[in-house]
Amino acid sequence: MNRRLSFQRLKTIIRKEFLHVIRDRASFGIAVVMPVMLMLIFGYAVNTEVDNIDMAVLDQDKTPESREFIDKFVYSDYYKPYEYVNGIGEIERLIDEGKVKTALIIPSGFSRELVRGKSPQVQLIVDGTDPTVARTALQSGILISRMYSVRRQQEELRKNGAALLASGGVDMRTRVWYNPNLESTMFTIPGLIGLIMQNVTVMLTAFALVREKEKGTLEQLIVTPIKSGELIIGKMVPYILIGSVDFLIALLIGTWWFNVPVAGNVLLLIVLGLGFVICALAMGMLISTIAQNQLQAMQVTILVLLPSVLLSGFIFPREAMPAVIRAAGYLLPLTYFLTILRGIILKGVGIGYLWPEVAVLFSVGTVLLVVASLRFRKRLD
Prior knowledge:
Elements: H1 7-23, H2 25-45, E1 53-59, H3 64-75, E2 79-84, H4 88-96, E3 102-106, H5 110-115, E4 121-127, H6 131-160, E5 171-177, H7 184-215, H8 217-222, H9 228-257, H10 266-290, H11 294-311, H12 323-329, H13 333-347, H14 351-380
Parallel strand pairs: 1-2, 1-3, 4-5
Antiparallel strand pairs: 3-4
Helix pairs in contact: 2-11, 7-9, 7-10, 7-11, 7-13, 9-10, 10-13, 10-14, 13-14
């Protein structure tokens, strides 16, 4: 037997493998598109420098001085006034709905105390559910207040020749809601529950159906009297139960082991969690109808799951993302479920505050389930 290395045979094998990769259009497309797409997503999404933080403003003074102080926040580019409100109740509503992350409260008499050389108190309320955004909001808010105070003191010194310490400044008081100590586990654990549910359910469904097609067991079921609808429902129910059990396990570990208590309605959380399980199941089922084998199923699954880690707000604040990248996150069911999880677990809010996310999540889940079922039924026929 000739054991010497033949470059001719080696060249033939290399050429054969290149042709195999090129002819497999799905794998070749993923191999070319995935690095470019993921590099662009990572490059824009992985950003902890937060700006344009949505802010509610309660100006009870309504004077030129109070408006000047508000302008300092606006022109800093760290804050973006979302709404001018008339009471603390509106601030609570906006923060609970997730529409604003901060609120600036200027009391009446703000201008009068400044003119008298006193230091009027203003309050900056920060939503602490996302520690990264909260820390940026706190630090920038205190810095803006101090700079405003120093500038006024310098102007008074030049204008009146008064002692620098005799002129008034602003006494900024801060208050963090829902996560006063800005603990990262309070933010990451609810997110992990959603992420684990999505990944486990999608992978189970995508790989299980493709594996059956490769083994030929799916074709054996097709020739039986079982109807396509019965087969689809029968395939889905076990994975719904598995996903629901996984959700309860993850929730138990998060609340008991990591000491992240559920502030809201646990039953509501479980019901909405079941809805998300069905939505993730539909994603996996759709992947299984697209992929021809387990390798393709793995590639498509990675292509779907990896961006969801970045764009959903699981780790990196969506406020720091460019508008286009942030808009892409709205296509992911996990984006809405993370808002639901953190709203119920950390804020204790109910369906009245979360109904927009719930409506979108169930709508996306229904569309995915219908499309996946139609494609699966077409394959069976």
